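It is worth pausing here to work through a concrete case rather than discussing structure prediction in the abstract. The textbook approach is simple: state the sequence, then state the predicted structure, then interpret. We follow exactly that order.
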Amino acid sequence: MRTPRFVHLLVALVMALGAFSVATPAHATAGSTSERAGFTRLEFGDTGWRVRELQSRLHQLGLHSEVVTSRFDAETRDGVRTFQARRQRPTSGVVDRATWDKLLAKTVEPTREALHNIYTPGPAILKAGDQGLPVRRVQARLAQLKWYGGDVTGVYDEKTLAAVTGFQTKRKIPVTGEVDRRTLERLAQMTRKPTKAELFNLEPAGPALDPRCMTGRAMCVDKTSRSLRWVVDGVVKTRFDVRFGSDELPTREGAFSVFRKSRDHVSSLYNTSMPFAMFFSGGQAVHYSPDFAATGYNGASHGCVNVRDYNGVRWLFDRVRLGDKVIVYRS
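Step two, the predicted structure:
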């Protein structure tokens, strides 16, 4: 009679200890799984508050516009890819845990104003009635973006006020018609330093052409003046503002030729649009860039020669032939 009871108690004890030992690792596994699942990656097409924070942090690094949208769009993906490329990581455009941690380490917590697109006008640096060289510089830069037309006068008149107002409205800067620090910085980011010819309405001579551009048909790309000139038999037919790759992904310099043209090209590497692409060195091409048109020099290509004049590069695309020279140099 005593033996069965002892056996019964022993079996119960073993079962209890077994349940405890099984429960413990199961709980630990669930905990580690939960920890691994605590981060949800961000990718193209996502929406929400975390996307706003991502865009704001990218803006701190010059990889996104100041305006945040909550939409993981092409601009956001391009910014993520550039951030990844600069750190020699796979350029997936997807924000995984490693990418997010590196982004946090390189940026600061976005302010409420930044996350809600709340901009307070700053003190006026230039306003209606002002005169002088600073006004000329603003007018010349606005002229580069087609906001200002006619002669640069150095007088902050009604035409200048209208141009500044239009620029601020387009860029979602507080619209005052006055040039504050934000307006001036955004204008400087989107344009190049005006030349003397632009400031004083002189007939531009431009920097010297590379000797290799003086014969035949050539796209003459000058990194110093950030310009592309279409030259036929030594005669400059037209000129475009251009931008280039970053220090990490530079545009190659040298003598090349156009070996492929693609009117509606989409990059297989970055999955971005490259309209009117004229390839001259591997995957590097001259092409229209909507990002350059939107943000100017506040950014860089992945090595290509970006043109922001849509109608101009379309005109050029129709005239350039396979085999035409592409000379990339510094004047």
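Step three, interpretation. Confidence is low (pLDDT under 50) at residues 13-36. The first strand starts at residue 217 and ends at 222.
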